[in-house]
Design brief:
By secondary structure, this protein is of the alpha/beta class. The protein is built from 13 helices and 14 strands. About 25% of the residues lie in helices and about 15% in strands.
């Protein structure tokens, strides 16, 4: 017997709820519109096979709605993006989903360390997005460090995090992807703890102005890294940046807005034979000599050389000739436009 599986790509609204409820109960994925409230969640809970639930922007959901949802024991992923009414009281009920693997809490600014304490019970959790959860501190990360399967954590704009929080994160044995908060009080000492993370592949350190060459020495020892972003880390000198060349497994490297990136740094980077994506936006000291080095990177697929006034159009044409399958974005001036990250 073949059982049909339904996966909705359209939004469920307060207007089509009855139509959706008339469908067979094998719905696996459901996205709800902003108007959905506790009443609709009670109805959704009848679909006890849902694995992926997107409630982004549903600003009317309260504790009562979450109490209904806990009937869905199959839930693996939930998105609560921009549900800024959500507090620790609602988060408490997420701990009742035994199979939950992924939580997106971007812009849930009323969640605190208490809420993360509840989530520490989710031993199947692999991915959590806490971007713009401004109240999160090191103590909250201490609680998350108890999660044995956590692989990915994003902390953009969580500026209360310090070196101590990085220490807690380094104790997560399965950690692979870490995006640290910009402008936080994270120093070289905090970065030193990452040397002990055996499977770390992706690391974002953007806008950490206390990161120096000493910190780069630690980063250069993280041999498992495949993606590294250092945008706006302006206190790393040429010496520290040259240490990146020791990370031979890197495939994606973001060096945007770094005043000390120059031709000598790119010379060191040219030894990174695995490099696929390279961004050097507003690296004003990079010139045509760097083109000769970049030509050696035969695996390059994307290069951004934006706001690099010392590179000429002739140099770019030479690079395009040497790397015909590479997408090269070039301009002498940086206009302030935000370019997509790889």
């Amino acid at each position: 017997m073949i059982t049909e599986e339904f996966e909705f790509k359209v939004e469920m609204t307060v207007n089509n709820i009855h139509e959706i409820l008339s469908l067979p109960p094998m719905i696996k994925s459901l996205k709800c519109s902003r108007g959905v409230s506790d009443k609709e969640l009670s109805a959704i809970a009848e679909f006890d096979m849902i694995e992926v639930l997107d409630l982004s922007g549903c600003g009317q959901i309260t504790v009562n709605g979450f109490k209904e949802l806990i009937r869905i024991k199959t839930l693996k992923e939930i998105s609560l993006v921009a549900c800024d009414q959500i507090t620790d009281d609602e988060i408490k009920y997420l701990a009742e989903f035994p199979n939950l693997q992924k939580i997106d809490l971007f812009l849930c600014s009323n969640i605190s360390d208490i809420g993360l304490g509840y989530l520490s019970k989710l031993h199947s959790l692999q991915v959590i997005n806490l971007d713009a959860c401004y109240s999160i501190t090191d103590e909250g990360l201490k609680k998350l460090s108890e999660l044995p399967k956590l692989e990915t954590i994003s902390l953009h704009s969580c500026e209360e995090i310090t070196d101590k929080g990085v220490l807690y994160l380094s104790q997560i044995p399965s950690l692979r992807i870490l995006e640290l908060p910009e402008f936080a009080e994270i120093t070289d000492k905090g970065v030193s703890y990452l040397v002990n993370v055996p499977y770390l592949t992706n690391l974002r350190l953007d806008n950490l102005d206390q990161l120096t060459d000493k910190g780069m020495n630690y980063i250069s020892q993280c041999k498992s890294l495949r993606k590294l972003s250092l945008a706006h880390c302006s206190n790393i000198s040429e010496i520290g940046l040259c240490l990146i060349g020791e990370l031979e497994g890197i495939t994606t490297l973001i060096l945007d807005h770094l005043p000390h990136v120059n031709d000598r740094v790119l010379h060191k980077i040219s030894s990174m034979s695995s490099l696929i994506n390279l961004a050097c936006i507003e690296c004003v000291e990079v010139g045509n000599n760097a083109i000769e080095y970049l030509r050696q990177l035969k695996k390059l697929e994307q290069v951004k050389l934006i706001g690099c006034p010392k590179i000429t159009s002739g140099g770019i044409e030479m690079l395009r000739h040497s790397l015909p399958y590479c997408e090269i974005t070039y301009s002498k001036e940086f206009t302030g436009i935000i370019y997509p990250i790889f």
